[in-house]
Amino acid sequence: MVNVCEHMDRIEELFTSDRNEAERITAEILEKAEYFAEELDIELTLPRVTERQTLRANPPASNASEYLRRTIVIPYLDSVISSMKTRFSPEHRPPFELSSIHPACMIKKEKTEFLPITENIAKFFNIENMKGEAELWYVMWHKKNLSSEKAQEIDVIDLIREATPFFPAMRKALIILSSLPPTTATVERSFSTLRKIKTWLRSTMGEDRLNGLSLMSVHRKLVEVQREEIQKSTLQIFARNPRRMLFQ
């Protein structure tokens, strides 16, 4: 995740460079647009300009390149750069820096570089006594003289077990690290699942049932393995709370 932050910094620098050379970027885009327009027999013209316009951008422009640069290229690049600066600002870096406490990343850093990172993590997640533990944690893993390959094979769960007796602050940080999703696939999968479960014909149900059906759909492989156990526990739940309906 630290590499992700560094990569995003490089991307931001690239967009900033393009923003400073907006004329060149616009010329390249316009050249491609003219090529496709010629293939489709379309003439590229400036939109009608009025003295007062409220429904679309209406900057003064003498040609198509100038209009494209002022209405599309520069606003788009400014929006992307602003969004990246907000999302990957220094205030939001500690969650990405959590992976630095893993030995695979830690053995590549000097102590003077590692300790400020742990201070930022402790301040962001409100973890007490992490500063002293971080130095001991750093020394302990460096004394083991692990190779990079061996360090990468260590799971976060194993690190949590290692930190349990004497490193409560590091243990808390590792638990947070293990709970952070590396991608948004889980969230997107939940939306797709809800679309399948909550249909027009089945639009009213309780929150507990909706959550249960969603989890069963997302973890369908686990459900298949434990099908009999899940069926028994489900029947027991329904047996404890019988649903009595009166029919006339």
UniProtKB/TrEMBL annotation:
Domain HAT C-terminal dimerisation: 145-221
Coiled coil: none
InterPro entries: HATC_C_dom, IFN-induced_PKR_regulator
Domain of life: Eukaryota
Recorded GO MF terms: protein dimerization activity
Name of this chain's protein: 52 kDa repressor of the inhibitor of the protein kinase
Organism: Cacopsylla melanoneura
Lineage: Eukaryota, Metazoa, Ecdysozoa, Arthropoda, Hexapoda
